[in-house]
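Tutorial, part two.
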Amino acid sequence: MSMKAHPTLAIAALITLLPAEAALADSPRQPEEVLVTGGRDAISNLAGSAQIIDEAMLEQFDYSDLNQVMSALPGVYIREEDGYGLRPNIGIRGATSERSQKVTIMEDGVLITPAPYSAPAAYYIPNVSRMSAVEVVKGPSAIYHGPHTVGGAINFATRAIAPEAEREIDVTYGSDNFQKYQLYSSDTSIRDNGGELGYAIDALRFSGDGFKELDGGGDTGFERNDINLKFSWRPGAAQNQLFTLKLGFADEDADETYLGLTADDFNANPYRRYAASQLDHFTSEHSQVHLGHLFEVSEQVSINSAVYWNQFDRSWNKLDGFIDGVAIRDVLAFPDVFTRELGILRGEIDSNGSDSDMLDVTNNAREYGSMGIQSALTYRLSWGETQHEIQTGLRFHHDYVERNHSIRGYLMDSGKMVYDGQQRGSKLRNEADTDAIALYVVDTIDWRDFRFTLGLRHENIRGNNDDFLTGDDNDKSQSVTLPGAGVFWQLTDELGLLAGINRGFSPAAPSAGGDVDPEESTNLEYGLRYQRENLRLEAIGFFSDYDNLLGRCRVSDPGCTAGEEFNGDNVEIAGLELTGRWDTKLTQALTGVVSFSYTYTESAFQTDFSSSFSQWGDVEAGDELPYLPEQIGQVQFGVRGQQWEATTAVSYQSEMRDQAGSAPLSQVAHTDAYTTVDSSVSWFVDSHWTVQLSVDNLLDEEAVVSLRPFGARPNKPRSARLRVKYQF
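Running the prediction step on this input gives:
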């Protein structure tokens, strides 16, 4: 599928101007139109759940790993994979974390993952190092953002254009030759006609040699580049308008693998990599063009529009198993049974030339694209004792994915992999595309001490999938209307109560068979917020009743085809989210802060069934979902002086089962419970210079954080970073 096949959208993308990345607001760095929540103050009386990690919080540790950033938020689940967060696995309120496929992910309010409808697995997520805030919305708050609303949405807010000259050079060096370089420049000039012209340049590069040790030697690191340009123009007319243009390019080169370890090999050396992964290599390129227009028609009416185009190409050459032999997962799970196959993976035994001994290295080449037009009209009015903010939004979206997975056979010979010279063709070659129209209407009503939110979201989706190997041509149409409602009651000056209900939805992909239903759920939330000058507390319970849980096959799942989907029938998920923050003055010169987040979650399938989806298998009613921790939490302690700041974060995650079931975890395959401690100290030398020393995993905790894609995988060991930032 090519963008050229849709000339109408292509022309519109060139001539239409869309959502503004900066707004007509007093704060140029955090304009409301970038922050889908409206910012931290707006969250305090929101009739729904939302959290924000602002620029100050991001600066405390300067993480480049999104997993570490998100671990500070309640109701957000992380499954680590490579230790650097190159391809995050993030779930919200029980929705699967697998490649973040059940989360709507945006940049400045615009869909940003490669193909959120046709292939929602998020192999591209923006680099958090160039963001000024990260937001999460859940429950009725997510009705604005689709297509995936079963759990919630994540918005990455980029830095707004500065009102006056601002320059920044940011350099970091750390363990395993970790290097990060970031240059930033922004300014706004006043034109003779009273208009304003602004720009921002953000160039980022970071890399590392990796912390794993490849048998026989070799690279296990990565390298990323990311450059973004942003331009704004505010005409000198009486009407308040803002035009923005954002251009971005990012690439990655990583020696990353799906291959993990057996339990015994993990215990001996968790950072080992088998010789059979020596050819594994990932490359990608991402390009984006976003054009925005914000029009403040009056104090009551505003229109925020956007046109966007994204392109993502990736190639992942990696070990996928044996050509005609035992599945790798079985080899690693039962090493005493498959000793020969394990010896080949380790490079200790040579292949004999048969296909059962031949290593399958597949080049998983894919091309993704997405483009669309969206606009939101906001109308504010008073009616009697009520104040209304009515927002209606419309989006036309098209995305596609082209897959061509080609196989090559390799012999293991004295620890080196040797190409067998045979042309083996493609394992998977297909093309899927989707056209979607999304519409929402939300009325936020303020009456006395109450805030009500009433809304509807409608999605009309038409997809097509062509399988060039089988000749199958599949059309998939889905249409759904999703209501939602929430209420917040300011009971006292300090205490507020909230409750909400909404229908959740995650569409089936175009490749799904006719008997596969989309994922739909009824989501409830209820809780309270308590706030004083220096204390904030929040407790929210949630319950999700799934009419149908949707499972999606990945390349690493045996017994199914990548992209194939499965019905999981009725599932119930319930939990509790707790958050708090206390700021206090310790002495005249010192201030302290303590913050925490905690999530308890339980889940259960409600029916008995058998599935060829390996993460489910033979399911009985009452079985728990895989890769959903019962408990996660983080506590942060911080102290700040006049020219320094120190922060320590203690994070915990409980065990997760590898496959659906109800047996005690000690009797089945599962990940480890683990606790990590991160610490950071910053010195503000003067108004220009900042020096920061950070240590991740201070106690050097070792844990099995995942048994997928193939075998036991470790967390990142203790590592340190020294950062110097110069602002002028």
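The two ends are 47 Å apart (CA to CA). In part three we will examine how such features are distributed along the chain.
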